[in-house]
Structures are given as structure tokens and as C-alpha cells.
Write a structure and sequence with these properties.
TIM Barrel, 8 helices, about 290 residues, globular, about 30% helix, 8-stranded parallel beta barrel, alpha/beta
Length: about 290
């Protein structure tokens, strides 16, 4: 893979960018959540896929490896392990990205695993990591978005009126907990995945004058970050409550944040693909910052 854009490690594209562009730039590529049940459709990328996104849901049920319900927790762990088995068809995949499980997920459709337990989650991640290690796979743990829309919080709601302790959310939302989970797991093959668009949705829980500090806090333990889902988002207007996944440079996340991401010793996935013109524009921005 080539590295002509000033990054420490090569950039990756989503699999949907297609074989031609991935080969043209000699980038890595990653399968997305949408690809989990359709890995066969990526056979043309057999040797080009370098990372993969683990499953998050089963139909309308959110998987929960932190569940206090033994059967559902074990099922969720088995689902992750089965995915690790399935990705062995792609010999160059050495990294699997996994979302954190829910702390609370109270939707009507969530008939199992509605509540998560921190200690149980840590034990479950250790189990999955142990299984992944047998396949020479690194597990990276991704910070999630704040689910403003899933919690039916309208754009007009004042951030000070939201009690997040009563809302649906995953573990690892704050930079402090995200980092602590990785440290508590303490496995050689477990690192962090930074999703910059998700970071923005979390920062919107705070007043505008505090948001830049909250964003930059995700980089305090940069040595733990081995993978990035790199996008832009709107830090200072309500559009940033959504997981916008803008081209890098098209939003208002701090320039210093993007510069630090560029300099991370981590794989950098551009987690979006809209068209070739957009990709070229984005790569030019990355090269120049």
C-alpha cells in the first residue's frame, strides 16, 4: 500500500469505493456494518480488504456482550466469534472494528439485553479478544455516537434539558470511559478505534465553548489508538448532533484535531465514499494539512 499523503500509515477506503480506486491508490479497505451479512459480495476484494466491521445488530435486536442475561450475552459473544471465523476468507484482514455494547437500550424491539454491566463487558471483550488472537486479529473498540435521533431528541431541545442517564446509549461515550475500557481490558490485541464524526455528536452534549476541549480529549492516550474512522462533522451547529460523516475538511471539527489524526500511528479509514471527485478533494486536503 502506498502512503503519499503524509500519514504514518496508509489510508484505507470503504469497500464500497470499489476495486478500481482501491487498487489505483494502493490503499487498504474495510467492510462496513452494511456488509456484515453480505461478505460474499466482496469476494473481488479478497486480497484488498485489510479490516472489517463486526456486527452490531441481529434484525431489530442490538447485540449486547455486556448483558446480565447469560443466554443473550453468550449468544452475542458467539456472534462476534462467528464473524471472526467468517472473515478468515479474507487473508489480509488483520483488524476487526467492534462497537461498544449498550449500557441501556430500551426500545420496544429490544426484548433481550436491554441493560449492560461494565464488568461483564470487560470480561466479554477479553473473551472475544482471546478468540481473535487465535486468528492473529487485532480488535479495535470504537466510540459511538450519542443517538440524539434514536432518543427522539428534536433539534430544538436544549442540551441542558437532556438527562443522558435515562437515555439509550452505549459504553465508551466519553473519552475518559473509552480509554479506561481499553486499559481495563489490558489485552495485547485490543486497541481503540477513534470515530471523529461520533466524537462530534458526543461533544454536542456540552456548551459550544467546551466542545473543542471535549473533542481533543479523545487524543489524550493516542498510543492506544490503532485505527480511525475519519470523517468531519459540524461542531457548532445542530447538524453536528447527527452522524454526518462529511468529507474531511468539509465540517468544523478543529484543524488541530485533523492534524493530530493525520499524525497518529494508526490506520486511517475514510469512513464514507460519495464519489471520486469528493475523494480527490479530501485527499488533497489531507496532504496539505
Amino acid at each position: 500500500m502506498k502512503n503519499n499523503f503524509g500519514t504514518k500509515r496508509p489510508i484505507s477506503l470503504q469497500a464500497k469505493a470499489g476495486e478500481r480506486l482501491i487498487k489505483q491508490f494502493e490503499f487498504g479497505s474495510e467492510s462496513s456494518l452494511a456488509d456484515v451479512e453480505h461478505l460474499d459480495s466482496l469476494k473481488n476484494l479478497k486480497y484488498l480488504l485489510t479490516s472489517a466491521h463486526a456486527p452490531q445488530d441481529l434484525g431489530e435486536l442490538r447485540l449486547n456482550i455486556a448483558s446480565e442475561e447469560d443466554d443473550y450475552r453468550d449468544f452475542s459473544i458467539s456472534t462476534m466469534n462467528n464473524f471472526i471465523d467468517s472473515i478468515s476468507d479474507f487473508p489480509n484482514v488483520r483488524k476487526i472494528n467492534m462497537h461498544f455494547p449498550p449500557k441501556r437500550w430500551q426500545k420496544i424491539t429490544q426484548t433481550k439485553g436491554r441493560v449492560g454491566n461494565y464488568s461483564i463487558m470487560i470480561d466479554s471483550i477479553i473473551k472475544i479478544a482471546s478468540y481473535a488472537a487465535k486468528h492473529d486479529i487485532l480488535l479495535v473498540l470504537e466510540n459511538l455516537n450519542s443517538y440524539w435521533w434514536d432518543n427522539q431528541l428534536s433539534d430544538g431541545v436544549d442540551l441542558n434539558e437532556v438527562d443522558w442517564e435515562t437515555k439509550d446509549e452505549a459504553f465508551g461515550m466519553s473519552p475518559e470511559e473509552w480509554i479506561k475500557i481499553c486499559e481495563d481490558v489490558s489485552s495485547d490485541n485490543v486497541k481503540l478505534c477513534l470515530d471523529s464524526s461520533h466524537v462530534c455528536t458526543y461533544a454536542h452534549r456540552f456548551p459550544p465553548e467546551q466542545r473543542e476541549e471535549r473533542v481533543m480529549s479523545f487524543l489524550k492516550k493516542s498510543e492506544l489508538i490503532d485505527h480511525v474512522h475519519w470523517s468531519d462533522n459540524y461542531l457548532f451547529d445542530l447538524r453536528g448532533r447527527k452522524d454526518s460523516h462529511l468529507l474531511v475538511g468539509d465540517g468544523s471539527l478543529p484543524l488541530q484535531f485533523h492534524k493530530k489524526i493525520k499524525n497518529l500511528d494508526a490506520t486511517l479509514l475514510l469512513e464514507h465514499y460519495y464519489d471520486e471527485a469528493g475523494l480527490l478533494k479530501e485527499l488533497d486536503y489531507i496532504k496539505k494539512i
